[in-house]
Amino acid sequence: MHFRTLLPLLVSYRLLAFDPTPTAIHFTISRRGGAFPSTDLADMELLSEQLAAAEARFNLTQREIVGNKVVRKAKKKVVGDGEYGGLIGEVGRMGGWFAELRVGEPVQVVEMDLDMLTADFFLFSTTSRGGRGFTALLSQTFGDLDYWVPVTLTIPTIVQSNYFPFPNCRVSTDAIALPTINTSVPLSFVLCHPPKSSLQTLLPSGAVLGLAPSESLSQMKADGLLKQILEKAIVRNGIWSIMLINGQDGVFSIGGTGADAVKGVEEQTKAALDRLGEIERQQKESESGQSPVGERGDEAKVVKRDDDWKWTKIQGGTAAWWQILMQGVWIDGNKILKNQPVILDLNTPFILAPPTATKLFYASISGARRLPPPHSQFYTFPCLNPPKLHFEFGGGFFPAMQGDRGSGPGGRSSLGRAKNGSGYCVGVVVETRMGVGGGGGGREGAGNGLKDLWVVGEPFWRGVGGVFDINQGRVGMMTF
């Protein structure tokens, strides 16, 4: 079932949230390029490229002291160092999770990338044909607030200076149609046009919705989407949530969660498939002259989930990302690691673990072994013996990467078979060298507050819902 059909069903289901009758906004989301990985055989060159790109996203920031606390900010550019990407959020990135944003009158549909590592909300319009962007001239309700936005370019060099990377970055307003509550609201956003002489005009158009909890990660002096929605009392709760249905479809909610709706759709889908299977079985039995043996209706029942969110406060000394404490890592019923600091990120396609933790993790799996260079950050395990893995958060035990991976070998813990005919699969838990000298996809080397951190990425969220409480600085989780 393609979950573009999920949005209408969300309206008819009461949401499991903190108010008996909450108002919430729900977007269906998709993974650009489809599910990852897409083949049964692990493409090690592609996996290595994806790993380097994932680590590089975390190296676009640096720690700074502001007042009496340490915060994380975008790195700054030295004038004359040549052109660089500028904004932390990347528009139209292959493998990114995005929602459709409807802007203006008549409506223009923009692909809005969700990014948990930045706090900005901006639309990016280029002259290329890539992506789906916004053209102000085509909207009758567009308004320009007529002031420029100072933005700090990112580059791995620590320099205290401000710079205007895009002469045409402006704060603007327009009507934005909010799904499920059937309301269009005038909201402000930063609209960026790269200079015509810039190579960035070749980049795709689109939008970025920053979801980081700290405003220190904002490069623009403009209110974000979530803040505006709360100030206009469109939603009552300062929360947002994600629920991934599979490797390429899910639900992103503002002001509530889609837990009950997702569960309801699952039940409807399974019931429909069960009825179809029963009809086919009866037809076959009728053709063969056999009588039915027993009832099979119970086989399609959804496994009951825990109805309580398990909460964890944001941890870490640097105000920045959604960083919390993972109380335990369990493999086959044994606790092998405890009290591990983790960053939660939807767009990282792996579970990244620091070197020592990765060695202990795979040492607990019979037959696991490290791949030789240049792919020594990856490990393999016997495809026929995938680990039964649980992560412990907030006193709750959450199954991680369990279940089948379609027709692929090794279950959800696998990135594919190591090579043709091999009985070993490449593990989704990958060693990261961020914060370790010479690692992490950047020049800064050791430090930058990234050493010994896990990144719990997309694979964990398949089957586990997350709710992010901005006001109270906490994260809730639930299996579904």
Q: What topology does this entry show?
A:
Layout: H1 6-11, E1 25-31, H2 44-58, E2 61-66, E3 69-74, E4 97-103, E5 108-115, E6 121-124, E7 143-148, E8 168-178, E9 183-193, E10 206-210, H3 225-231, E11 239-244, E12 249-254, H4 259-288, E13 310-313, E14 318-319, E15 323-331, E16 334-344, E17 351-353, H5 355-363, E18 369-370, E19 379-382, E20 389-393, E21 396-400, E22 414-417, E23 424-427, E24 429-431, E25 454-456, E26 464-469, E27 474-479
How would you concisely characterize the structure shown here?
With 480 residues, the protein is an alpha+beta fold. Helix content is 14%, strand content 32%.
Any idea what the radius of gyration is?
A: 23 Å
* Fraction of residues in helix: 10-25%
Poorly predicted runs are 6-22, 78-85, 151-166, 288-306, 439-446
Structural class: alpha+beta
Tally of separate helices: 5
Biggest sheet character:
7 strands, mixed
- Compute the separation of the termini in Å: 17 Å
Can you describe what's shown?
The protein is of the alpha+beta class. 14% of the residues lie in helices and 32% in strands. The protein has 5 helices and 27 strands. The protein has helices at residues 6-11, 44-58, 225-231, 259-288, 355-363; strands at residues 25-31, 61-66, 69-74, 97-103, 108-115, 121-124, 143-148, 168-178, 183-193, 206-210, 239-244, 249-254, 310-313, 318-319, 323-331, 334-344, 351-353, 369-370, 379-382, 389-393, 396-400, 414-417, 424-427, 429-431, 454-456, 464-469, 474-479. The protein is globular and about 65 Å long.
